[in-house]
Design brief:
Metallo-beta-lactamase, Chain A; alpha/beta; 22% helix; 244 residues
Length: 244
């Protein structure tokens, strides 16, 4: 399994960047996890628009779904230009029906996932944990049968993340705040909280993502290193991770 960061920013992208989006790749199958602002533009630095086999959405905040509409328009334009009319499945939860229904368009189809059950998308098996956030949101544990990656999506700290992340090869953690700040009221985590989860869950590597635009994000790694002794690194556009 290979994971590529398309967008690492929370809220909105910094200039030249993109907000929350990742590509999970296995055996030429590409799964897009969230589709934040400018993610389609950054995606095209690596892949053709039509290379994406499926999309899954954690929740319906704009910094995670802003490019769904432009993906739909891109598929529409491609169909008119080439005559290819394949339907792209976009998986989402149904706890906000108005937003879920927007996942379906001329060449995309919204597919509901049941957070209580494992979901199979191509070579990936996905299980879910409901997060502590201002709207219904689901973190994911994604495996290809050999490698385990946990993506917290947007969440305040909760003890459930420890068991859910147990032994993962990579934990991609919401790190929208610095150590000592009050992240929970905003439905996010600090560098310390993410690192403590990584430590207690004995994950192998920790990626800090959903980054703040204020301050120096490099400081987040320095803060996290006080609580987790494994490998820690910042998400950035184009960064690719694969199990060694």
């Amino acid at each position: 399994m290979k994971v590529t960061v398309i967008g690492p920013w929370g809220g909105y992208p910094k200039s030249g960047g993109a907000s929350a989006s990742y590509i999970f790749e296995k055996d030429d199958f590409l799964l897009m996890v969230d589709a934040g602002s400018a993610s389609l533009s950054k995606l095209q630095e690596r892949h053709d628009i039509m290379d994406i086999d499926a999309v899954i959405i954690s929740h319906y905040h704009a910094d995670h779904i802003a490019d769904i509409g432009v993906i739909q328009h891109a598929r529409l334009v491609h169909a008119h230009v080439t005559g290819e009319e394949g339907i792209l499945p976009i998986y989402g939860h149904r706890e906000d029906l108005d937003e879920f229904e927007k996942l379906s368009h001329d060449f995309t189809e919204g597919v509901a996932y049941d957070p209580e059950k494992a979901l199979q998308i191509g070579p990936f098996t996905i299980t879910f944990l409901k997060t502590v956030h201002s709207v219904p949101c689901y973190g994911m544990r994604i495996t290809d049968g050999k490698t385990e990656v946990v993506f917290t999506a947007d969440t305040a700290y909760q003890e459930e993340w420890i068991d859910f992340s147990r032994g993962a090869d990579l934990l991609i953690v919401d790190c929208n705040f610095y150590e000592g700040q009050n992240a929970s009221e905003a439905g996010h985590m600090t560098s310390e909280e993410g690192a403590r989860i990584a430590d207690k869950a004995a994950v192998k590597e920790l990626m800090l993502s959903h980054l703040p635009q204020f301050g120096d994000p490099a400081k987040l790694v320095q803060e996290a290193e006080k609580y987790f002794q494994g490998k820690i690194f910042l998400a950035k556009e184009g960064l690719t991770w694969a199990k060694q």
